[in-house]
Amino acid sequence: MTTPVYLDYAATTPVDPRVAEAMSRHLTPDGLFANPASRSHMLGWQAEQAVEGARRQVADPIGADPREIVWTSGATEADNLALTGFMRANRARGRHLVTSCIEHKAVVDTAKALEAEGFEVTWLTPGHDGRVTPDQLRAAMRPDTVLVSLMAVNNELGSIHDLAALAEVVHAGGAVFHVDAAQAVGRIPLDVARQGIDLMSLSGHKVYGPKGIGALYVKRSPDIRLEALIHGGGHERGMRSGTLATHQIVGMGEAFALAAAEGDADQARITALRDRLLAGLAGFEGVHRNTDIGVAVPNILNLAFEGVDGESLLMALRDIALSTGSACNSASVEPSYVLKGIGVPRPLALASLRFSFGRFTTEADIDQTLHALTHALEGLRRQAI
Ligand SMILES: *Cc1c(COP(=O)(O)O)cnc(C)c1O
User: Could you give the CA distance from residue 154 to residue 31 in angstroms, rounded to a whole number?
Assistant: First the structure.
């Protein structure tokens, strides 16, 4: 059996060995393992220094001040804190939230929970390119709109939102702008001031850091108040209690520093790999691009293979780690809500696969994938005749 090729970087990335090395210095008795909130001894101060160093490493690549970074358990918690925390704290100002129907479940399900709590949500439908336009957003704004939440890079399609243009509309309407940037760090330029972002969700494990750590950027401004969701010792300016996970935080910091230093070079190399896959598929019939590559990151490519069933194709490609984006419940397979959201017809949505590449993807991986795809498609289409 050949070693599987990993093309599911959008689901999670491996921890960069340099990150793992930094993390390992914060676990064992000979390391900086102390509680960073311990003020009564040197070991606590040293752990606190490590946490504060990582806070700067996470703040720098997005143009933030380290004091604006709130550690969370991941981007899911950051999305929950941004939406629920902000809407609850600003009830008196308005009850209306605007988002899109292709956001990550962490935003979609939080917005649904807020609807059940009595808030009102407008769900924007993006175009075929996976993007909401500033005009669409302008039309959805109301006098009682307090928050707009739109993602920087879509995790299934790779489509990139024009954040600065959207922020202008949000702020003209007197609202606050939340951006889920879990897939964006190291992939596109981020600058909270220039792009007008007030709240931004970040994750460690999409950027070669560990799972179970993330952050919410919270702009320092009297307009941005959040109600805490987790109560306890009052850590993180009262916004998120709980003992800080020093090793996770140090890992995320190191990962973000590497993304800042190497992200552009990674993306240039990955663009060539993506194009190699596309060139290899050029001779295939019935391959549709769900990703509009003109407005997408190169590391995510969503393709539909006309006339085949995505689940069967995935089975035939068992040596390639990929994702379909469709959701299985016991009775049936439902197409991805994201593909549905951009208007991909159901049969094509069910025949779609997401290829996502990363720092450790090689040309040999792409060639092996093309080889496996050729065999799988020929086999499946022969069966279909
Ligand atoms: C992965 C992901 C999340 C969730 O992040 P976790 O750190 O796993 O909680 C949220 N939003 C997007 C766009 C993602 O890709």
Answer: 38
